[in-house]
Design brief:
This protein has about 575 residues and is α/β, with parallel strands linked by helices. About 40% of the residues lie in helices and about 20% in strands. An eight-stranded parallel beta sheet has the order 1-8-7-6-5-4-3-2.
Length: about 575
Amino acid sequence: MITNGPANLQQNSSMPVAKYRPFLQTNPPHLTYRKWPEKQIVKAPRWLTTDLRDGNQSLVEPMDPARKRLMFDLLVRMGYKEIEIGFPAASQTDFDFVRSLVETGAVPDDVTVSVLTQSRPEIITRTVESLVGLKRATVHLYNATSPMFRDVVFRNSKEETIALAVEGTRHVMAAAEKILGDQTVFGYEYSPEIFIDTEPQFALDICEAVMDVWQPGPDREIILNLPATIERSTPNVYADQVEWMSTNLSRREFITLSVHPHNDRGTAVASAELAMLAGADRVEGCLFGHGERTGNVDLVTLALNLYTQGVNPQVDLSDIDDVRRTVEYCTGMGVHDRAPYAGDLVYTSFSGSHQDAIRKGFAVRAAKVDEQGSDVYWEIPYLPVDPHDVGRSYEAVVRVNSQSGKGGVAFLMSSAHSLELPRRLQIEFSRIVQAETEERGGEIDAATLWQFFADAYLPNDAAENLEPWGRFVLGRSSVTSDDSGAQLQAELFDRGSQLIMKSTGNGPVDAFVKGLEDLGHDLRILDYSEHAMSSGHGANAAAYIEAIVDGRTVWGVGIDSSIARASYKAIISALNRALR
């Protein structure tokens, strides 16, 4: 007879937990009745991206001007209308970047740039000077208001802290009046920094004092930003704080209430969402959660969370891989494979039962679309968003056997064949390996794995006993470069018939693609990587191309002693596979 007993009780940790106390004992909110749990988010907030300020200052190696500009252009392209671009008084580099945006006309008329300043007259003046010539600009002033920072860091009384904010506001107004012309639509933002740890009544008092100076009214808003500078409470407590402020602030109709959640507890997204329910009109954060320590709230996750609830996010994330690649290049930091919506593995199922459920979900959806048309709600097991909406596809991956899967395949290709496959190519090739092993049975070794790989991606002479395949074969090629770009001449064999392809592009790969386009093939490269397969003279190089060919996404691989020819071969491989 089988019996069930009670589970073993967990034991107390030996960690010194007694040195900490609950947040509610240090700064409890004054809210006795909360309305936010009864509400629903029905529209996107105003977004401010601080990738170029908070995000940049937290990087091990801050962005240089070229990468900053690339990031700025991405944010504009995505549709962000409020962009914090730096702390221009902090360094000549930041000041010069702001001026470069002005002098090159990079800021569209409908985009407001924001700059940060401390409450010091000389810093405020320098900050405002950086904005001359902009159509729309906001100065964001902050000072620390929490007891710890008042008592320990700055040794200021409450009265001195309020005076600092008030005088700073006066200096901002005076500098803007003196320095900026009528062509600039000028805005003001104030942050009681470390709001989350500030006594609610004192946070209210200092915001009211600032407003008494700024005098918000019709066509003269003020942005009051309530930062969770160090996230120390659960999201519901932060929502209580925001609702209390929203309820008790005077002149509320002229206030844009903003939040700036950090992710120290890992709940910044939830904090932002509950803050929106509690009255926040605006959210500040970074793409993929960059920022100091554990980062700011992730604006990509937050926007796509809205999208999956039928709320228009008012930013364009339809090519999330382009966004990710640009951010990774600009910041030098990778996006985690499991990052919501954007990670390499988030639309991949390794579980057979998950894969089966998703397959059935797609079948049911296809039947509904056939019956009702395309206007059918998205309801697929394990996929909260249609991958195609963000420029991705569903990739079902199952394990090769009980011992290995994608990781085992990638390890063998690296250790035995010196090929470092890109992650999405690993996923694609793992599917091929799985199909072969299911048909053959048993385990595979490195030599058999190479047979599978060569048959899928390489010319038939790359391994023994392969059937010839592929319409095109690369012959001789040459390339020259000058100020106008790269001039390419390449010999191709189309089912044995010689073709001479001549084309010009920004570089050899671009020229080769344009040559194929001249032959009538629609080809767009999505991803490219290459590496040497060994060291020393005459070593082979491997190139990998992910491309859309005639509407189909395929990978191609090329191997050659010349990296340029390896790239050409990878493109031919992708083209041949699309036509196979």
